[in-house]
Amino acid sequence: MVIAQAERTDLKEILALQYLAYQSEAKLLNNFDIPPLKQTFYEIEQEYNRGIILKATEEKIIGSVRVYIEDNTAYIGKLIVHPEKQSQGIGTKLMKAIEHECIAERYEIFTSDKSIRTIRLYEHLGYVRFKEQKITDKLNLVFLEKRIGLT
């Protein structure tokens, strides 16, 4: 597996993988109207222009993660791994790669409070919960952060 910065030409494939990878999250939440399943090509292109998108490839793209920096905080988002490749350490490698690629004083990421496996992954990588936000009666987001020197 190779992890590298995504090219603009990779964005359609990453977006298709995102739609596939977030199906399990949608089922978990019993809501197929979540933002990652509605994101457009234009929106992912804006994210590409604003920050860094990494891809994990074998014969094709099997994972990806995004980041942008604002006020010394690296905002990490949309860590995705192909469903057939999950639980093989790819997400961990992508997270470590994005932290290495994008040096910041603080890193922040969020997920649904129902995504227990994802929360455990982030906590294993040194992230700690600092905030929860109620979005709807059925959706709460958990925000986690990692500060340099806290790992």
How would you portray this structure in words?
- The chain is an alpha+beta fold.
- It is built from 6 helices and 7 strands; from the N terminus they run βααααβββαβαββ.
- It has a 7-stranded mixed beta sheet with strand order 1-2-3-4-5-7-6, with helices on both faces.
- A hairpin with a 3-residue loop joins strand 2 and strand 3.
- The mean pLDDT is 93.
**Number of helical elements:** 6
Biggest β-sheet strands, sense, barrel: 7 strands, mixed
Structural class: alpha+beta
Distance N to C terminus: 26 Å
Task: List how many beta strands DSSP finds.
Answer: 7
Low-pLDDT runs: none
Q: Mean pLDDT, nearest integer?
A: 93
The global form is globular
* Alpha carbon gyration radius: 15 Å
Q: Beta-strand level of the residues, as a percent range?
A: 35-45%
Order of helices and strands: EHHHHEEEHEHEE
Q: How are strands sequenced across the largest beta sheet?
A: 1-2-3-4-5-7-6
What share of the residues lie within helices? 25-40%
List keywords for this structure.
151 residues; single chain
SSE topology:
Layout: E1 2-5, H1 11-21, H2 23-29, H3 35-38, H4 41-50, E2 52-57, E3 61-70, E4 73-81, H5 90-101, E5 106-112, H6 116-124, E6 128-136, E7 139-147
